[in-house]
């Protein structure tokens, strides 16, 4: 039999890739670093200047450079037996192991200098990465549940259908209601600034305004107009709940991306600081 | 009395124009009858600006009319021009309703009552047919139309669309797409539902109806059309509706009826059959010739050549060699000995049993589609588990079938004149044995579509192929356990049965004991537990079902339904019983499988209470996947939404690996229980896209990839045939600046499919006239590492699976609990 390109066994998340291979590798790296650190006798002080410190430093620097290449790997779709899932898996676990490797490299010597700046930036990048991993694990299922088997396009199409229904439902109503319905159709906004995308409840949502308005209005209108208003309310309610669904979806999407806006720029800053750290170390030695 | 012509040509497509032009050139009196008011209606109806290709490239054009690849408008204008210059006698608006008489004295009548006399008739009416027209009073009023070119051309009108097929539904949906145009649309359908339309179309229609965007009247028939009004017969009486425009999409009559009314005989009753023709395209009616698409040649060049050749023949040139002679000569070049085309055709026809009854014209046609191979003794023809659906015939030599994959000494010989490869042809699945040349061989390989055409054209071939296929399938499954007489008794009793998707083959609890071998398609096994049908397993072609009843007191223990349209071979249970008695190995194998199935049944039964919701999810998910066409798939892309972060890197990778066009649309497609089936090729067992490809450009590679080669003419047939909407018609976009210059300097649109604006701008700069061609997934055939969509997924959400796998995947309780 031919071996298949994908076997069901390979259907696992990036965290469990190849039976947690990269978790094991980075775990081993951490253990080795710690064992080396405690078993070696350093004189006069433990820091990056000793042979052991240099070794950890070189490993750490190479790791940082390699980790930063994930973005290039993701975009350079070349032929070959690589898997981006494997890269992501290694990126996550080796990235976290840097906390140990780099901390031991520092020998716990911190100060107000470029060395500690590089260290702090690195920790910041790693923490933002951990948040990213959390989002990657936490969000997809919730996003899928929220969409409830609809696609983004389906949802937007439904909005325009509901708008057409609002238009129809407005026909039998008296003229004074027209601007409110018109506004709910034309001025309901989705997305926008990052804050809008992260918030689910848009206080100024025209659809919600219209809904609240008609709900209040129900108490004042004459009986004969009541059923038309009720029709209007039911369409508005449908649109309102769909809007909520879309806004949740937008928020999930934003969360999946937002951490990268920290992770990536700080990575560049880290690389700059790292270069400064290495040059200054050699220059002053 | 009307003029008498030497030649009357019916139909002004490429074949008809070419015939008439040559008649004019030779000074023969002629008339070209065209039902519309313009030439070449089929091409005229192509969308504006469509690029028309001129394949096959090697074929010389033999016509007085020019033709080369180019825009629809240019080609039509040139033909128009040359028709005038060549002084062709064209009678427009002559819709022929009757052809009678015989050679030397044909009488042709048109719908408008005109008559024409001719000594010879050339029928070149294509396969498009005539749209059915409305027959009620007022059915000829000018506000009735049978096509809809631009759905946005009307404003504020009451429009009635008649016909609930795909055409009618798509027109109606097109008319309401832009609400600003404020058209009021009503769809009128005669039947109670929409049995002929695609499910997706019906769904969107009903949704639009529920939302009040259009009206739908079923069980309604038009009884009267008046200016501004239409009267309909509905179930509770008559209704009269305001109506500015009627768009009637009530199907079209295929031309076969008309052709038969002219006295022309067809090869068989099969839908795919063509008229019986002589080597000179003469039909069973002496003096009446059939050329072009109607004769089975969909490519323009072939049609034009045939028109020319037939007129030459009528004019007395009987020695003319067909224009495809050099193509065949090239095919036969590698054969040993003298390479005279006619002699080789005759040799093949006599040697190969299934070709015996073909005419030399049919031989030419099949050999144009087929390949001739020369194999040396010991060469492998194909390997077990290769994908392949072509049919092989042995013109010379013997081949060996390796029946045991582990022992290459166990072989069965297939002798000269016989066929092999029929199992792959029928099932669309991998080859079930390796074939090795046992001596030096000459083999003819016929692709699936031509083989199907052959089978439907010559009834004797169908019988023979089926007989061989049943015999081999049975002996493969039940092996050598039967004596010759027993075996022939089993064969004589075997019956081939076709069952449609969803139809039940075996009913749980019934007391019949027949065994069914699945020949093509696949089956779902379900068990009725606690008021619900619980999905047990998926069985594919090459396996058998129904043997359990023999051991379970003659009661069926589960229901077996067809997942897709399938064919099975029915065997009497009694035969199977005696077969098992005679063959202990087979019995052990069956008992083994039986205990597995019993265990599964017991497991499902035992879990009844606590298992309920999980079992429901299995079944529901399996049914969802089958609905999405995965029952007929061989390799499909699925996305696990519990892992997908929506980064679309799968699409980016696809576009980067294939000329800048993504062949998958992640977001489109359906989702169920966190499994998303994106719009992407399923590589079906019997690919729908292949069913009518004029240049035969769609193939299946040995590893199963269904791909389109460079000979695509951009006709769009495959796109229309694909039920899953995975084929796009696209121009190849311009080359992008490289990745590094984008990453460092932001040059170009970046990785993935370029945005439309950039593509348009760059194309405009370069002056692009590239044709649109069909684009679909080829599973990254030939790219090391395999499918880029899967390799480029950062989280492991994208997976490629085959039906057995994803159905077992959907069964996995740990996954289903989600």
Please provide a brief summary of the model:
With 285 residues, chain A is mainly alpha-helical. Chain A folds into 2 domains: 14-147 and 259-284, no CATH class; 152-258.
Key terms for this structure?
heterodimer, A: about 280 residues, mainly alpha, 2 domains, 11 helices, elongated, disordered N terminus, B: about 800 residues, alpha+beta, FAD/NAD(P)-binding domain, Jelly Rolls, 5 domains, 7-stranded mixed β-sheet, 5-stranded parallel β-sheet, 24 helices, globular, disordered C terminus
Report on this model:
The complex is a heterodimer of chains A (285) and B (818). Chain A is mainly alpha-helical. Chain A has 2 domains: 14-147 and 259-284, no CATH class; 152-258. Chain A contains 11 helices and no strands. The termini of chain A are far apart. Chain B is of the alpha+beta class and 818 residues long. Chain B folds into 5 domains: 4-129 and 254-314, FAD/NAD(P)-binding domain, CATH 3.50.50; 144-252, FAD/NAD(P)-binding domain; 327-476, Sandwich (Jelly Rolls), CATH 2.60.120; 484-610, Jelly Rolls (Sandwich), CATH 2.60.120.10; 624-816, no CATH class. Helix content of chain B is 31%, strand content 24%. In chain B, the strands form 12 sheets. In chain B, strands 1, 2, 5, 6, 7, 8 and 19 form a 7-stranded mixed β-sheet that branches. A 5-stranded parallel β-sheet of chain B has the order 10-17-11-12-13, with helices on one face. In chain B, strands 20-27-22-25 form a 4-stranded antiparallel β-sheet. In chain B, helix 4 packs across helix 5 (199-210) and helix 15 packs across helix 16. Chain B starts with a strand and ends with a helix. Classes of the chains: A mainly alpha (285), B alpha+beta (818). Chains A and B meet through helix 3, helix 4, helix 5 and helix 6 of A and helix 18, strand 37, helix 22, strand 43 and helix 23 of B.
